[in-house]
Design goal:
The chain is of the alpha/beta class. The chain is built from ten helices and 15 strands. Helix 1 crosses helix 9, helix 5 runs antiparallel to helix 10 and helix 7 crosses helix 10. The longest helix is centred in the C-terminal third of the chain and has 20 residues. (2S)-2,3-dihydroxy-3-methylbutanoic acid binds next to helix 7. The site of (2S)-2,3-dihydroxy-3-methylbutanoic acid (89V) has 6 residues, from helix 7.
Length: 343
């Protein structure tokens, strides 16, 4: 099968890792990179062996005519560069969070829908090995229909060291991490019916919210789902970054996602513990192991859709439902009220 030729927009921390993950997946060839600072694009191309460098994205699209673009810029680049792809009818994958406002995200989804051009979101959390094992165990019905769940991602890790732009965002933890966990919760329990959220800003050098606590009612069963998020440099006895821990209760049993990638499934027959460690890749930063390894199955799913083999899980249209929850959470926290949905 002929490899799909693609261009990367952006040349930062995640762009470098993502290109390595694309190469792991196979079936594509990165033919050009765009970055508004040409020096960074040149360094990226040199280090990673990309043949063409551009500092004007429109010229890149005209001259290179890629089969698709992977837009791995920071959030400010998501809307303008994705809309540029839509105008040129070039399929586009955009990094999460899709856009800085819900209105922008809706415009982006509509712009691609108008011409039937594929528009996908790079949302990798639901592809992490332990999260996938949780989704599959729930779908298999092992614990029955869950009535309650808790997701915890509380870490003292210095996330700003590799991604300094996160420090200056007015909206931080719900956009950066809330998108991931709310999307995973949707994969587990279905669409939200109501949501309540409280936020804290605890660090003087970080502008946005860095601690969030949410309670949702999800799916037909109205499962109560609590989500705890924290990037507060909290000294913790055991640091699990970037693992998400979880506990789910149903009428037939419970599932615990513990650290070290262990899934404990308890039914009347007892507890079965299995480790769902991510595969090790030499290009991955070991401090981000489970997160970076999940880029591979995520990209495989997106590539299948770009080849027309079937729908991707995280299309732009689907991801709007995740972003709706993120913005509803900000509204809830601001007004201290429950937001209701009618899926
Ligand atoms: O995956 C991400 O969105 C990253 C991190 C794991 C640091 O939150 O920004």
């Amino acid at each position: 099968m002929k490899p799909l030729r693609f261009a990367i927009f952006g040349a930062g921390f995640w762009a470098r890792v993502q290109l390595a993950a694309w190469r792991e997946v196979g079936g594509t060839e990165c033919v050009a990179v765009y970055n508004r600072s040409r020096d960074r694009a040149e360094a990226f191309a040199r280090d990673l062996g990309v043949p063409a460098v551009h500092d004007d994205p429109e010229t890149l699209l005209r001259e290179v005519r890629p089969d698709f673009v992977d837009n791995i810029t920071e959030i400010g680049g998501h809307k303008p560069l994705s809309l540029l792809c839509a105008r040129h009818r070039v399929p586009c994958i955009v990094q999460k969070p899709m856009a800085a406002t819900l209105q922008d995200a809706r415009r982006m989804v509509e712009a691609f829908a108008k011409t039937g051009t594929p528009f996908l979101v790079h949302e990798n959390w639901r592809w992490q090995a332990p999260m996938r094992a949780l989704v599959e165990t729930l779908r298999a019905g092992t614990i029955g229909t869950p009535f309650r769940a808790r997701f915890t991602m509380v870490s003292g890790f210095d996330v700003w060291a590799n991604q300094p732009a996160l420090r200056g965002l007015e909206r931080f933890i719900l956009m950066d991490l809330g998108t991931h966990l709310l999307d995973t919760a949707r994969a587990c329990f279905g669409e939200a019916r109501s949501l309540y959220c409280q936020l804290h800003r605890t660090l003087p050098d970080v502008k946005g919210d860095n601690v969030a606590t949410l309670l949702l009612s999800m799916g037909k069963a109205r499962t109560s789902v609590a989500v705890e998020l924290g990037y507060a440099r909290t000294p913790l006895e055991r640091e699990a970054f970037p693992q998400t821990l979880a506990f789910v209760e149903g009428p037939l049993g419970s599932i615990q996602v513990a650290d070290d990638y262990r899934l404990h499934v308890t039914t009347r027959e007892g507890t079965v513990v299995r480790r769902h460690a991510p595969p090790r890749h030499d290009w991955a930063d070991p401090r981000y192991e489970v997160a970076q390894a999940s880029l591979v199955p995520c990209l495989r799913d997106l590539l299948g859709a770009l080849r027309g083999e079937g729908p991707a899980e995280t299309t732009g249209a689907d991801n709007l439902k995740t972003l709706e929850l993120v913005f509803a959470a900000y509204d809830s926290a601001r007004k201290d009220r429950v937001e209701r949905f009618h899926p």
